[in-house]
Model the fold of this input.
Amino acid sequence: MEDRGIELKALPDELGHFGPFGGCFVSETLMHALEELKDAYQRWSSDEEFMARLDDDLRHYVGRPSPIYHAERLSAHCGGARILFKREDLNHTGAHKINNTMGQGLLARHMGKSRVIAETGAGQHGVATATVSARLNQQCLVYMGEVDIARQSINVFRMKLLGAEVQSVVSGSKTLKDALNEALRDWVTHVDDTFYVIGTVAGPHPYPMMVRDFNAIVGREARQQMLDQYEALPDALVACVGGGSNAIGLFHPFLEDEEVAMVGVEAAGRGLASGEHAASLVAGRPGVLHGCRSYLIDDDGGQIRHTHSVSAGLDYPGVGPEHAWLKDNERAEYVAVNDDEALAATHTLTQLEGILPALESAHAVAHGMKMAERMRPDQMVLINMSGRGDKDVQTLAAIEGMSL
Ligand SMILES: *Cc1c(COP(=O)(O)O)cnc(C)c1O
Done:
């Protein structure tokens, strides 16, 4: 059993494979850019000065380490295991995404790239990228579908305040996947001075590996904090899964700890049976999307299907390839939680603990509560609080028929 953990932890291989998943399914024109990125990442991630600078930024700019908090009232409410939160919601800009954009921004600087591009759906990754670009004095262009721009006006304005340019994408469905295509097109034509910042553990190699490594600070801290505060590892880890970066960041440092269960929580939207969900691992099938092989949600003709979740950050038709492999070899388990359950968990948590979670994180909370109920009081479940809910206040108000 332990061997399996060691083997899993060493992935991906040279070509970016996690078992049959991952890889690099891109046009030849992009291969050069990806090779350059892979070499640069290898070089700088083993450079002591680079890593010390990143560590310093995470400490003093992002606010790490984030605490582990024992939610006593929520635990008592569920009546089973102790519920603990890893507080990524306390990071600068309010979520885990800054761990990765900080790393990629710094890497761009060391590669001599003065221009940074990104794509964003709800705008959270765009804001995290624009934040780091402002600080590192990089020119920042964010691609965003026209439909998303209309839906997420506050984040669009935030990016502009930070000095970034937001480019409206009017092709296709005018949402995230179209913005992604535009960003790739931009990268191919401006490879010399441009760095493409991807916001989750998807895309072609080396992105799933690199984004995981930058987010693994979450799991490394959590593992040590558990040993320091509780002299034990948690019995289970729970995290929501959109593309999968906050989940893999927490899971990865625990892969060899076979006694620690891992549960990824996808968005069941209006219910799996309705077809209106974003549960790629639970209800999708293997295929190729955005440069890598993983699970995805498509129709019988192989076209990517429209997805739905009340939380914009989970509303993605694919998922990172490492999760696909952890699912198939059963090291991690994946479940889905629907909109209503996530909203109920949001209200319960806010009222019992004074913590308003991001709607994404509320999916993990909802499932973590169900698990805790079935576990013994001497057990512990550690839930990744991937972000805070300030960004969702308008959505929550609209659901209750209020307009702010
Ligand atoms: C973007 C986002 C997610 C989903 O992204 P992952 O790559 O799956 O982590 C989850 N939680 C929050 C708060 C987010 O902003």
Observations:
- The chain has two domains: 14-58+97-211, 65-94+216-399.
- The chain is about 45% helix and 20% strand.
- The radius of gyration is 20 Å.
- Residues 95, 97, 124, 200, 240-246, 313-314, 358, 360-361, 386-387 surround pyridoxal-5'-phosphate (CB under 6 Å).
